[in-house]
Amino acid sequence: MRALAEQTVADVRAALEGRPMSGVPLLPDAASEHQRRLLYAYVRVAQELDDRLAPVLVRTRSLLRPDDIFSHLADRLAHRVARRGGVTPLAVFEAPPAWLVDELTRVVRRRARIDDPVPMTPLTGLRSTLYEHPDDRVALDALRAIPGFDRIVSMFIDHYASYLELRLLASNIEATAESMPELYRLFSHVCRTIDVPQPPLYIEPGPLNAYTTGTDRPIVVISQSMLSLFTPAELCFVLGHELGHIKSGHVLYYTMARQAAVLAQLIGQFSLGIGDTVFRLTVMPALYYWQRRSEFTADRAGLLACQDPGAAISVMAKFAGLPLSGYRDFDPADFVDQARRLDARLDTAGLDRILLMLDTVDDTHPRTVWRAATLQRWLDSGEYDDIYQSTAEQRHYLDAMLGDDPLILPFVDDVVDTIVTWTAPATRQLRDQRRRLCRRMLRLGEAPRTAPLDDVFVVEVELGWASGGTMRMTVRLLALVGGRPTRVELQASRLQSWSSLPQAARDALMKTGERSVTYCLYKRSA
Fold first, then answer.
1. CA distance 308 to 237
2. What pLDDT shows up at residue 498?
3. Is 248 helix (H, G, I), strand (E, B) or coil?
4. Which of 96, 165, 167, 339 has its Cβ near the most Cβ atoms within 10 Å?
């Protein structure tokens, strides 16, 4: 390491004196004098402190094109050096002043923190349709179907679109590469992980809280307390949760739910008080119900962002009241056990589930332990692992077959249940295993390697009108039965409502006037 330090310093001295360097240039020719001075001092101090800063010295060798965050740190330090005056590169080389050593050491350590993000696998091309909670989209469609709701949305946008952003701009600090480089880098990393364009991020004072606001231009807000009390992995879950709202197109309705009381007063002013009452009795409960369901989807996005189930559970435990004194010794497994007990009770006692739903009817979020139980059930189903381990091509499979429609997932899951029932599993464990394999087959295009699903080569679905305005779903398979290719026709166990169909299916039925429409969900060569 000492030899590397000496060679690096020699190369920088050569660059400053206009002589050729022995290694790769550390800065492009267009680098400013401030940048050259900074880099030279940076390497010189690294040589002085190479035992503590050996990784930094290695990193310095690759700074041919510094990224934006390093450039901001470099410019700031260069200005500090310039304000001090009387410091030249050669003077720094001969005897770096103590104050400069301190400044550079602080910057180097900060840089090391920025360069050490939580390790996450980028899920390039991830679509929200692949992980959304089925109740989320159904509830949103029901909300949109309320007469006059589109007019309420238009009124909200007209009166609040610019105000919400202006209020944040006037009252809260924005986290940028210049002001908060560590948080900015972490946020950028999360955006890349779940493939979301990076929105503005604001910090607000107050207790543990985070939310997404805006209309056509989403903004993420996180509380100062979270930055102080949450680990990087936990922050990734929280930020990923909020980005999940953006990815699923929740932001406008989510913001309306946050401003529901104010919106009710506004409607009352335009309707002599009548609209206020109607809004509070019809739209507001439906809006809150959808928002509670949307949190389940956002929790899944948060888990895909942080890729650490323990961190996701610990965030919920902190929201549920975990005291600061217990943070260090907290075991997420204990909270998971509590969530499982709740889940089992809600499954066996239907009245308890009804009581819990009635208890939250005026709330914007589900009970925290219920959220943890719902997320844990998703983990146990294997869906998280399937998405996390999938390739970019597999994540595009469902879109390629059926298009990017938010209602595709519940539709596909109904097909999965129909096929698994046809295989006649003997035990619940075998049913769960086949369900996961069939789900991977239809969602990701992965050929199963376990009988009898490995004998299925084509899966087609016909949606046709039934009595009472409902839709009958017929699943047709081309499979090997008794060693011979056979066409198998399966009737779904329940009728489909018109509103639960994928939009493409509704459009096809409306435009063609046909009694049925057929889709191919899966096909593989023999």
1. 8
2. 72
3. coil
4. 339
Q: Find the farthest-apart pair of alpha carbons in the chain and give their distance in angstroms, rounded.
A: 91
The answer to whether the CB of 282 falls within 8 A of the CB of 147 is no
| Angstrom distance (rounded) from CA 338 to CA 341 | 5
Could you identify the residue written with the tokens 């990087």?
232
Mean pLDDT along residues 333-342: 91
Q: What one-character DSSP code corresponds to residue 495? A: P
Torsions phi, psi of 485, nearest 5? -60, 125
Cβ(295)–Cβ(250) under 8 Å? no
pLDDT, tens digit, 9 for 90 and up, residues 474-493:
999 999 888 888 999 998 87
Cα-trace Rg, the chain? 29
Residue 169: other Cβ atoms inside 10 A = 12
Residue 252: its pLDDT value, please? 85
How far is it, in rounded angstroms, from Cα 372 to Cα 338?
A: 9
Higher pLDDT, 242 or 324: 242
Residue 305 contacts residue 117 (beta carbons within 8 Å)? no
Which pTM was predicted?
Answer: 0.78
Locate the DSSP E strands across 387-500: 456-465, 471-481, 484-491
Neighbours of 245 (CB within 10 A): 25
Distances (CA, A) of 300 to 399, 403, 418: 19, 21, 25
User: Strand pairing of 471-481 and 484-491?
Assistant: antiparallel
- Please provide residue 338's backbone torsions phi and psi, each rounded to the nearest 5 degrees: -65, -40
**pLDDT the model gives residue 38:** 53
